[in-house]
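Pasting as-is:
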Amino acid sequence: MKKKIASCSFGKDSLAAIITAEEHGLHIDEAVYCRIMFDEKISAELPEHEEFIHTKAIPLLWERYGIKTTIVQAEETYCSRFFTVYKERSRKTGEIYGFPMRQGAWCNSHLKVRPINKWQKAAGEYTAVVGIAADEPKRINRKAERDNLLPLVKYGITEAEAFKICEKGGCLSPAYNNGRTRLGCWFCHNQRIGELRRLRKEHPELWHRLLELDKESPCRFTQRYTVKDFDRRFAMEDAQLSIFDFI
């Protein structure tokens, strides 16, 4: 029988999928987490989620279910690739990579896909356990074609119910606070403007790092805007709110 290995970001869906599988007698042999780093010291995860992963979630999977967690990680970081200079034969020869483009983003291929592919070659045959909720039809269609196990889909569990499963199991990341429903890299250029606004407010030290990179990048942070553009916008919004406090 092939091993069952769960791809785990330690977000609500991946953890709820593991819990659901275990509660229905489908034992997960291993969880695999791809750790992405901003630089040599700072993780891509929001600090509160990073702490949750290593001090709460990983120990919980082992102690409660006997599931070991394997951490795979690229040798390079977001910053090291950001400052990599294009080689000869490229129309950008001599330029640094800078921020990833919206399509064909190097951050996904270099920092996630490559280390996972390297791990997969050594892992042998296994059944992938994937955390996709029953009310995510587009994601279901992409993953159902392969020999994957989707516990939340199999048992009709929605995203809202995944939240409750994690809350009940004492393993909901504190990063899901104040209405946040999705987790991802804090420096992601595809995240919603509201998440960028929260990053600036709640983690100004990380926002400052993005502003520093913004000065060096040959391309914008998003297709239309620089980080500085967002910074000005958020500052103006803050100033407006301050004025209304006195009206």
